[in-house]
Amino acid sequence: MNIRVIVLSLTAVLSASCLRCPPPVGPVPSAAQLEWQKMEMNLFVHFGPNTFSGLEWGHGNEPEDLFCPGSLDCRQWAGIAREAGFRGIILTAKHHDGFCLWPNPESTHTVRESRWRGGKGDVLRELSEACRESGLKMGVYISPWDRNDPSYGTPDYNGKYARTLQSVHDGRYGELFEHWFDGACGEGPTGKRQEYDWPLFRRSVLELNPRAVLFSDVGPGCRWVGNESGMAGETSWSTLKADGYTPGAGAPPQRSLMEGDEDGPYWIPAEADVSIRPGWFWRESENGSVKSVDQLMDIYYGSVGRNALLLLNVPPDTSGRIHPVDSVRLIEFRQRLDSVFGNNLASGAKVRTSSSYGLRFRGKNLLQDRYDRFWAASGRDTCAFAVLELPKEKRFNLIQIQEYIPLGQRVRSFVVEVPDGEEGWRQLAEGTTIGYKRILHFPQVSTDRIRVRITSSKAAPVLESIGLYLAP
Ligand code: FUL
Q: What's the CA-to-centroid distance between 420 and ligand 1, angstroms?
């Protein structure tokens, strides 16, 4: 090896392991969780026999032939998702009615038993191809509650469900980025409830697909946000006290689900799920009640803007395509997001900070696009601040701040200030946690200087970016 190769490999190792970084604080995300968080918005797709019956929870005795989309088009779903800026799609491969959208060898209630495509259809296959072509990731929802399976309510069912999980996570549909474990546990066809073997279920997915982010009320990959309106708490920790709790009836208190736990020992960030329509499944009668762009923006601010990932349900209609009302709304939503976030008014600013952890982590990094370039305050500076001196006076009403979460979530509270008189500052807005992303609104202001001051933090803050925007 010549000297150049040695130097290059040493530099690569040093930058990859961030040896000279400030030390991490508390739990930190795994590589898969970090990648997941950066996806920001995913599409949820509720599709199955309920699409045709109009029910929200099918009874499980619906004839397989009920499922018969006239012109299923997963490429249309993926195309719309990509255009609207979503990074992944999670499909209800099996809802509580037990019907499987793939030919699950463990079940006799699947697309294979239906007349759709002569029993040769496989929605998971079509969606995985469409996602691959569009550069999207795919995830699955497979309900443990099964109102069709005769073994539901007996120990046999747990093994069957585990094998069901394996039949989709063995790589045949590509790498599935997320598995959605619904905690619902109702009665099966014999009137019995199931005692779920959660450790077995988790193992069955992770043994085959170790990078899968497992969603449930207690993670371990990500957690339910505690409501179905797409809203995280204003305080939103990605850490959770999960010990002693289970998904479903034994879930952590709603407040912990919404806000996380400041001293939680596990990194289990929030995922905020919500439907673009009143119901989770498509119904003709709800074509007039698709959420407005304003409502979607509120949801975006309440989820992505509060350190959560947004999982927005957009259910296809009986043809197997996303209805035009919904697709047009998604594109309008994208246009609105672009009109707000397309122009960062902080760019070109000079950044002055109370301290920095060496030259490599200076304030200037706050305005760089790369996530791994960040500003770290020095050692004990837990009340650090950053002043942005804008090239000229700008008008804005929104600030977006990000922490560099690979080093842990640190900030407990902060204020945003503008100059007041010669030396003073006036408070414009205040917030508690930041996390991966925090967006705060305030009345429009015109100024050439702004200060973000951390008022409490677990350790010296490590901020990734600060952006200023004008929302119409
Ligand atoms: C819930 C289910 O009961 C609903 O039908 C829906 O799938 C929602 C996302 O999760 O637990």
A: 50
- Give the residue extent of every domain in the chain: 31-341, 350-469
The pLDDT value recorded for residue 19 is 60
Res 1 pLDDT > 60: no
In this model, does residue 102 exceed pLDDT 70? yes
Q: How far is the CA of 51 from the centre of ligand 1 (A)?
A: 14
pLDDT tens per residue, range 128-175 = 999 999 999 999 999 999 999 999 999 999 999 999 999 999 999 999
Ligand 1 pocket check for 217: Cβ under 6 Å: no
Residue 279 CA to ligand 1 center (angstroms) comes to 10
The finding on whether 97 has its CB within 6 A of some atom of ligand 1 is no
Residue 271, ligand 1, Cβ within 6 A: no
CB atoms < 10 A from the CB of 8, how many? Answer: 11
CATH assignment of 31-341, given 3.20.20.80, 3.40.50.970, 3.40.50.2300, 3.40.50.300? 3.20.20.80
Ligand 1 nearest atom to the CA of residue 145, by list position = 3
Cβ neighbours for 6, distance < 8 A, ≥ 6 positions apart: none
Domain topology for 350-469? Jelly Rolls (2.60.120)
CA distance 271 to 90: 13
Q: Which atom of ligand 1 is nearest to the CA of 57?
A: 5
Q: How many CA atoms lie within 13 A of 207 on its CB side?
A: 11
Ligand 1 atom at minimal distance to the Cα of residue 275: 9
> Do the beta carbons of residue 153 and residue 193 sit within 8 Å?
yes
